[in-house]
Amino acid sequence: xxxxxxxxxxxxxxACRGCQVACKQWNKLPATKTxxxxxxxxxxxxxxxxxxxVRFEEHPSKENSVAWxxxxxxxxxxxxPPCKIKADQIKKGAIIVNDFGxxxxxxxxxxxxxxxxxxxxxxxxxIPTWSxxxxxxxxxxxxxxxxxAGLEPACTKTCPTGALNFGDEAQIKKLANERLxxxxxxxxxxxxxxxxxxxxxLYLVIDEQIKYRPVA
Length: 216
Ligand code: SF4
Ligand code: SF4
Fold this sequence. Notes:
alpha+beta; Alpha-Beta Plaits
């Protein structure tokens, strides 16, 4: 099977959180108990019951008002995954890459509990989370069973705006180029695709990355 990619076009995201909920539904994950802590984002980060979270950041805009930065976040399925490189030093085979490029945490990650922080720190975006209920490391698995059955992931299937897209590498990279051209036209030449050579989840943004996700 050809390598699969995501395109996340942040210019189209309206922060409906449909992707976040669809991920929970497909994975039969409960809501995370949380509280209002000064932002519309909820829960505050990825956790054992949340494999995809929509980040809500707000910044002052030139027009003396507020600009929203919405950013649906999950594992990027790195082409050379640092989490796997680190895990292989501790428990070989606990993290694997399947034939279309999904980085998967197997049941072997149960044995990585003591090294959990090391694996999390190896990830440039601090994605892996320890699930105390499942007693293993968890994160987005690219809905690999759906993809094997010829379907797309639950999150991309649900997105109503075209912000989340999924497909073969050539198809997604072509779409990314088209969307980038459109974004530059619309936003005065601003726009870039983040980490194009390193990941399978390509983010189209029109501002500095730190405005979308200030957390490490
Ligand atoms: S984004 Fe993080 S958890 Fe996902 S494959 Fe890359 S290093 Fe691993
Ligand atoms: S479903 Fe689409 S529009 Fe809604 S929050 Fe997710 S990426 Fe954004």
